[in-house]
Design brief:
single chain; alpha/beta; 6-stranded mixed β-sheet; 4-stranded antiparallel β-sheet; 9 helices; 35% helix; 25% strand; binds adenosine-5'-diphosphate
Length: 249
């Protein structure tokens, strides 16, 4: 087996807000075919790191590369087109459209940003096979003709993942994909993430350490904006500083 390919990397990421250092000296490597978790207590800087990677925020310092290309100063729309997509980018699913139409609308957007008017019906029809394939990937094929607003909470979040996959991301950023879900939905979403990570990279913020242990190949632990530890679950969970951070000392 060859070395897993780094598809997204950050070096020396730093972000200040009016002099307050929210993220400092963060290095990350995200690999094709792997699931990477970003964890840490509230205020650790996880959201800020996501905002820096997707270019919603410019870094005060540091460098970001996507598929070997420097994206440190690239626009969010361009970064999305290049293949780095965050789940909530189109997470606003349309409750009065069917499940299938939500995915077809997502498929007709070039980068998942902004709202676009419907194209002609024949143009939409051409998107149906791909939309059905995506619904199958996430196990929503039976809900194809339901209104998105009628889905359970867990299945709405699954539909969000399908609309994100419509952009064919090379790197998928998921912000607490299981938040608020019951055990059964957590299992379903874990399986979906595992299957979509086979041919792309996944970076996720996740609070549920059982999920992280079960699902993630690599874990970066942030605390007060800095990397406290990084490694596989066994490594980070046995790290004394991580234990202290999670016991709230
Ligand atoms: P997490 O997602 O890990 O909870 P955040 O990235 O949201 O952490 O926040 C990290 C720190 O940066 C917090 O102290 C937060 O208050 C601060 N912060 C985040 N965004 C801003 C902002 N726009 N202006 C000022 N401070 C911010």
């Amino acid at each position: 087996e060859t070395e897993p390919r780094v598809v997204l990397s950050a070096r020396g990421l730093r972000r200040e807000f009016a002099g307050f250092v929210a993220v400092n000296n963060v290095d990350l490597d995200v690999h094709h075919g792997k699931i990477h978790a970003l964890i840490g207590p509230n205020g650790a800087g996880k959201t800020t790191v996501f905002n820096l990677l997707t270019k919603f925020l410019p870094p005060t310092n540091g460098r970001i590369e996507l598929l070997g290309r420097d994206i440190t100063y690239t626009s969010p729309a361009k970064v999305a087109r290049l293949g780095l997509v965050r789940s909530f980018q189109i997470s606003a699913i349309f409750p009065y459209l069917t499940v299938l139409d939500n995915v077809r609308v997502a498929l007709q957007r070039p980068n998942g940003l902004g709202v676009q008017f419907w194209r002609s019906l024949s143009a939409l029809d051409r998107l149906t096979p791909r939309a059905e394939e995506l619904l199958e990937t996430v196990g929503l094929e039976n809900a194809r003709d339901s209104l998105a607003g009628d889905l359970s909470y867990g299945r709405k979040r699954v539909l969000e993942i399908a609309t994100t996959l419509a952009l064919d991301p090379k790197v998928l950023l998921l912000d607490e994909p299981m938040a608020g879900m019951g055990q059964e939905d957590v299992g379903t979403v874990s399986n979906i993430i595992r299957s979509v990570a086979r041919d792309r990279a996944v970076l996720m913020v996740e609070h549920n350490l059982t999920v992280v242990a079960d699902l993630c190949d690599w874990i970066t632990v942030l605390q007060r904006g800095e990397i406290l530890a990084a490694g596989d679950y066994a490594t980070v969970s046995s790290d004394e500083r991580v234990k202290i951070a999670y016991m709230g000392t």
